[in-house]
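Lab notebook page, bench 4
Experiment: in silico fold of construct C2
Operator: M.H.
Input chain length: 194 residues
Purpose: comparison with the prior construct
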Amino acid sequence: MVAARRHGVIVSYDLNYRGSLWKGIGGKERAQAVNRGLARRVDVMLGNEEDFTAALGFAIEGVGEEYTRLDAAAYQPMMSAVVREYPNLSAVATTLRVARSATVNDWGALCYCDGRLEQARTRTDLAIYDRIGGGDSFASGLIYGLLGGRGAAWAVECGAAHGALAMTTPGDTTMATLAEVEKVMAGTAARVER
């Protein structure tokens, strides 16, 4: 991260907290200490509601532990607080996943950038083939939009569409084309055409 920033490279970081990895070396407290140090070297921070709380120590009010109702408005105070604490951040983003079952999820996303909260369209009852890689595909779509200068609203919609498409195929590597992502962004069903 230090070398990347020294050379003007934009640094993105996915908090992605895994309790089993931190269990033997200090748990959440240690994870938060490490991530707080890293956050000072990040430009674009990603994570879901659990990650921001467990890995960074920022709670989201009004979101229960079951994550069955994710109110986008509840995220803005947390995202604003993260940016105030780490003014180096140009964007903070999260996915909104309500897992109705292993194969049906509601899926959306948020991006806080330039003092504004941008929200992707929520895809309700998204049919999941394999949810592994959905978050990474969201991140790559978001980053694609931000690097391309398309703005945070377009970028978060691109990320959400790409993540939705990725979950309609097996494995954690996307098979979606940009044209397919753009069709989903325009409102068609999230399904890769083969």
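Observations: Helices lie at 2-6, 19-22, 27-39, 49-56, 75-85, 134-147, 152-166, 178-185. The radius of gyration is 16 Å.
Next step: discuss at group meeting.
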